[in-house]
Prior knowledge:
Layout: E1 7-13, H1 17-28, E2 35-41, H2 48-52, E3 61-66, H3 74-84, E4 89-92, E5 98-99, H4 103-113, E6 118-127, E7 130-134, E8 145-147, E9 164-167, H5 184-193, E10 197-209, H6 223-242, H7 248-263, H8 268-271, H9 274-286
Parallel strand pairs: 1-2, 1-4, 2-3, 6-10
Antiparallel strand pairs: 4-9, 5-10, 6-7, 6-9, 8-10
Amino acid sequence: xxxxxxxxxxxxxxxxxxxxxxxxxxxxxxxxxxxxxxxxxxxxxxxxxxxxxxxxxxxxxxxxxxxxxxxxxxxxxxxxxxxxxxxxxxxxxxxxxxxxxxxxxxxxxxxxxxxxxxxxxxxxxxxxxxxxxxxxxxxxxxxxxxxxxxxxxxxxxxxxxxxxxxxxxxxxxxxxxxxxxxxxxxxxxxxxxxxxxxxxxxxxxxxxxxxxxxxxxxxxxxxxxxxxxxxxxxxxxxxxxxxxxxxxxxxxxxxxxxxxxxxxxxxxxxxxxxxxxxxxxxxxxxxxx
Length: 289
């Protein structure tokens, strides 16, 4: 038996008309019914609004907000949802994913019965509407329950935000993640979930779409993107070191790891580019704590 606590569901959308109907059906038909939905659209240029508008007056919809200008960041949309959330628990339901209809019921049972801070559903990978595998969240490579300690700092511990439900109280002092356009999710997990109790829930499924390129396919990105990717990681690690959340050794390991990720995906021609040479010089400067 679970206590009937309010859950805030935040749906940030940008140009996902092809997936919205499936996602919205998986939210509004949940077996657990004590939830509010915050619909956020970041100035979509497709037909998303015509789909979202069908749910504007739904009794579960507490906010329907359309940006007049694209923010350029899903993480700013997350923060907007956090500021409006009334629930004890939060679920960020990305607009291109979907889930089982018992998702909230099962997640709340897990988080309450095991006294967790964060619960992660079993996550299946979908491409062309077919399940092609499962996502192995790094934190669960050895155990089904853990604390998000510095042992996981080199890795993004959660690979699909749609798969998690967490206590709203965890976001009290979270704000820096919105400064990042590419790795804001990783920064958010570190800010909000560090040293918190987290467990895998195998009794419900979240379905994570991988229809196009992502950060995991860096080889398809151009030099400008890769440089921004490295700089964001370096900035994140430097801030963690400056605030004494990590030591010098971990900082240097982190910087090396993400510089090598970029370097190993560049051709010789791109390595002769003046912008790469500049970032290479900065990298050696960055190695000094």
